Amino acid sequence: MTALFLVLTGLLMLVGYAVGLYFGDPLVFMGLGLVLAGGINFVSYYWSDTIVVKMTKAKIIQESDNPVLFNAVQSVALKAGIPMPRVGIIDSQQPNAFATGRGPEKSVVVATTGILSTLNAGELEAVIGHEVGHVVRRDVFMSSVAATIAGVISFIGNIALWSTMFGGGNNRNGGNALFFVAALVLVPLGATFVRLGISRSFEYSADEYGAKLTQNPAGLASALEKITAKAKLKPISGKPGTAGSASGPSPATSSLWIVNPFSGSSLVELFSTHPSTPHRVERLRKIGQEMGVAVY
Q1: 41: pLDDT confidence band, cut at 50, 70 and 90?
Q2: Mean pLDDT over residues 126-143, rounded?
Q3: Is-catalytic flag, 131?
Q4: What are phi and psi of 276, to 5 degrees?
Q5: How many angstroms separate the CA atoms of 143 and 246, rounded?
Q6: What is the rounded CA–CA span in Å between residue 140 and residue 102?
Q7: E strand or H helix at 73, and its extent?
Q8: Given strand 106-112, what is the order of strands in its sheet?
Q9: Which one of 131, 203, 208, 269 is the catalytic residue?
Q10: What CA–CA distance (Å, rounded) separates 195 from 188?
């Protein structure tokens, strides 16, 4: 994982260097990108849970509002040895769940109403275990860092390319034109692939954590298959009125959910925020074998 973040940092430096060839000192552009990334990461660290809850239209609940979901989160948190996260719910027929927050000391576990009518108790606990895995490993914050760096790279590249198209900049090194264009097109694409790779890696790790914490890899595998099947039939489009509220969750939150809940998600795993469900189930089978538990 550290290597992937180093790759992103290196790509940021590379695109800054390329821009500097036409628009000034490369160090200036590298510095601006890092400052912007630092500012967004600061906001993400302290307020990511509040921002995501608002983006998904989740409602924070108490035990009396939904005892089944609240008690499932409480039970898994006790097993993990972390403070009780806040619990949120989204009124949607699609079964799904996610976690957000900077870590165990400040986190939220959110589920849709549809998950309670789709999964049995063991499957629900396994899904909550997956989400608590993200909390314990601080995946949400790390994903925000990766997304921010990739976003800065794309932003700088797009601004530089548009400026060049309208006559901005000066090519003091005429032989570098090809490098300049290639860097500003290919580097952002590469950064996106790295970010998606980080997101998929987190999903695999959270699957393993949840399976081992709840001692139920079969339950998690079954839950993933049920959620995926329902997500295809009832995708959350992110458009007003689709999630049972004034407006649906933002597609920008797609990487947070246990299964991508939005319509129009990529059919090619390389371009997806999540590994394919068959691949995840296959890994859970191997984890089950290590634990001496059958996963069908």
Answers
A1: low
A2: 89
A3: yes
A4: -65, 150
A5: 28
A6: 7
A7: helix 67-80
A8: 59-61, 86-90, 106-112, 97-103
A9: 131
A10: 10
Contact 129, 76 (CB under 8 A): yes
Cβ–Cβ under 8 Å, residues 148 and 47? no
Q: For the ranges 165-169, 190-194, 289-293, which has the lowest average pLDDT? A: 165-169
Q: How far apart are CA 232 and CA 261, in angstroms?
A: 8
Distance CA 224, CA 218 (A): 10
Pairwise CA distance, residues 114 & 259, whole Å:
13
Q: Which of 90-94, 218-222, 267-271 ranks highest by mean pLDDT?
A: 218-222
- Measured CA to CA, the distance from residue 264 to residue 272 in angstroms comes to 11
82 pLDDT band (50/70/90 cuts)? very high
Residue 135's contacts (CB-CB under 8 Å, 6 or more residues apart) are 80, 82, 85, 99, 101, 103, 104, 107, 109
Any idea what the Cα angle at residue 119 is, between residues 95 and 252, rounded to 5°? 20
Structure confidence by residue, pLDDT tens digits, 222-234? 999 999 999 888 7
